[in-house]
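=== Structure Prediction Worksheet ===
Name of assembly: unnamed complex
Input type: mixed (protein and possibly other molecules)
Chain count: three
Listed entries:
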Amino acid sequence: MLVGLVANPTSSKDIRRLTTLARVIDVEEKANLVARLLVGIGSEKGIEVLGLDDQSGLLRRAIALAGSAGSPVDFLPIEVEGTEADTRRAATYLAKMEAAALVTVGGDGTVRAAAEGWPQAPLVPLAAGTNNAFAITDEPSVVGLATALAVTTGADAFLPTTAIEVETVEGRSLAVIDVVVVRNRWVGAGAIWDASELLEGLVTTSRRTAVGIASVSAALGPLEQGHVRHLRFGGERSVRAVFGPGLILDIPVAGHVDLPMGAELSLSEENGMVALDGERRLPARAGLVRVVEGPRVLDLESALRVL
Amino acid sequence: MDIPREHLVDMYQTMVKIRRFEERIREIYFADKLPAFDIAAGLIPGEMHLAAGQEPVAVGMSPHLKEGDAITATHRPHHVAIAQGVDLKRMAAEIFGRDTGLGHGKGGHMHLFSVEPNFGCSGIVGEGIPVAVGAAMAFRHHGSDNVALSFFGEGAANQGSFHESLNLAALWNLPVVFVCEDNAYAISVPKTASTAIADNSDRAAAYGIPGVLVGNNDPVAVYEVMGEAIARARRGEGPSLVEIKTDRLWGHFEGDADAYRSDKFKTEMLERDPMVGYAKRLSDEGILNESDIAAIQQAMYDEVEEALQYAQDSPYPEPESALEHVFAERTVTL
Amino acid sequence: MTAKTERKLTTQKAIAEGIALEMRSDDSVFVMGEDIGTYGGIFGATEGLLDEFGEKRVIDTPISETGFIGAAVGAAINGMRPIVELMFVDFFGVCMDQIYNNMAKIHYFSGGNVKVPVVLTTAVGGGYGDAGQHSQTLWGTFAHMPGMKVVVPSNPYDAKGLMIAAIREDNPVVYMFHKGVLGLGWMTPNPRATGEVPEEPYEVPIGKANVVREGTDLTIATIGLSVHKALDAAEQLEEKGISAEVLDLRSLVPLDREGIVASVEKTHRLMVVDEDYHSFGMSGEVITTAIEGAFDYLDAPPVRVTTPDIPIPYSRPLEQWALPSIERIVEASSNLLVAG
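=== Predicted Assembly ===
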């Protein structure tokens, strides 16, 4: 059985180190996480791990750390540029190889890039980022074991999610947690930390414990499965949200509406940037969003029930 | 927080000035050293370390600086000095070894010192880092909200002075921003062969200060991060480490065969030349049109030429003046 | 020298007093180094300062010489007047770049535009069994590099006056205090380490030697603790009918070449006592100065009593044999008188 592995060495090192209390997860710490994951996977025989090499040596360090207890790992035959395009291409390649699972290690941005490369991927998103609204924060060896069991037992332990497809003049992109239109017109340092910039947004989850825009959505009430919530920011009424690590803000929300699977919406703002899963990415001009099926995500409990 | 147009344009303008300056210095440097390269010959003798490609690292801080902020830099200082607003004529004259230079010809290209703005650089790797810590101590003593910035390369991050300085700045909560220009090569040694860990921004955690990685050579990303780091320091919240991945387009020094970097690497670097990328984005965003860009280029070329001409027209210092300025005269007597 | 009171201080206390007086009158003066605060300096050079001036101006540092000496340079460039202590001169190896390449050269590189008013204090000297890495003097090394003044007081009066002068200098000054002249209670007692010191601020000029004992038969030019030994030797020589002039150089940069020449013109014989290593240092410089300036006045080749070019050994008989002693000075002086 084939399991893909994409670990992002640059997650959680961005400007939010200065603007919030976001912690650093350095490459050595991530290597440790991935090593524990590999040991978890390695406890089942018959699994081949195909991993994306990186310019920081993260995967290689992890392999060395895990030693013989870890699952053997081969490197994806993909040229590494050191950008998120690597993640996307890796996911596309693994889709072609029909991998039984795609493990990502990073923040929400890493998950997004993987989902863009393989929209319906059987994802195991291991958390190692600033905002982990989507990713799994459990102990990596448990996650590794659960992944191994999920792919070898044949039982479908992956649950469906909802995602947002974004179409602008620059083409199509996917977001797995949120799409936000902000006043800033520059990609710059990528992250968003200034709530006064928010114009409108869409969120796929109302998990109460989420951080970021998802926290705003959660404050407005539960979101039905297969739906996406559209938010308009501004106005008199505010909701309290955990906008970032150690950053609790009152965000003015003028209104919201829940959109069902397949729904389409034009973004109203002309001048600004569209941020996907917390990172500024595309100009907002002529933006169209669509509610689509997202990647499937491993349900740890149900995978481990096999033991 | 939309970025003011003025800042975006100023940064581009400064980048053009830097690139033009570096290109012209390079031309002049080689002009009278060839055909057989003689390092001692010509208008600019000695070593020359140019920063083409590293413009974004320097210009990102400029809009956030205020009068009195202190900067220390390295043997590759021109982009930082220009971004801080060091007098271009006097800087050029110093590089040409003339009496009108910043140091009356005594320092040269690696030892440029300016009082206003407050700039110094050094030919010893890592030497300026503790000096920025000291400047920050002085600012704190005087109760000002000035900030000290120290620029150094990824090679310097393995020098003891780097570690001692971060510890001191963190221990005493000083207003310093440590800026690591990662151009991936310390002369010919790649970072993968010199540094035990992947990213120097991770080293900040060892000293209890925040470390931020700017993973691309983008002036706007640098602008945002430097803005936060500098503001934080001014507010008295202490030091931070900013690591910026940038590109050293040319060799370590002028005359470097640069054979240790592959042609593919060099081609890829040129393809992501920040001058081209930033100009295009400014144009796409409607901030500058073709004629604006041409006007900026012309103006900056003229300014650079004026400075170079001033330098070339300036007299050399008298030989015996070599004995002057070892010590300062006393200004206070008992 | 004008003594205004009969008050006596040890050299160590005189240094601390000099610093305190300047810190009182100039808010930009501050002190930093290892153990200079709570402890008052391992050798007491900063005794009492933390209590009087507080921890913002008397700063105990981590063991980071490159870091804090570099910081002193940065602070000095930016309007402060730091006094920074390198605990033992022997430790210069870990931070010499900041001292000789940075601190000493910035004024020159900037064409005189940037001033670096740092006082680098440091303890020098041996003779009490502290072995090869804690007993050196090394003034030859520091004096050899351009851009920093070097002063080495031998007595309490000069120590305070030179400290005040050093602080008021707008240049880097390496202020080397010999442990044996400090008058520390935990070192072998030394009567010459205590002396009259006026209470008010005063300066001793940097770059001026001092004839501490007039004589006619030979000049003993020396510095630091060796001044005491030369004075003791001179007393013994007196009984033998030899009149020795002891010239306390006090500064090595600038070196009082005129003072050396003037003394040699008078006595016609020169001995240099140098506790630093024999070769390539102070003794060679002083002798050459005499030859260049007073060759015709010399009745005999100059001689030197120095520490040989060896790491300073630990065992007492070895160390006492190696370092300049009163006996060696007396013997060499006697020989010098019959030479030529």
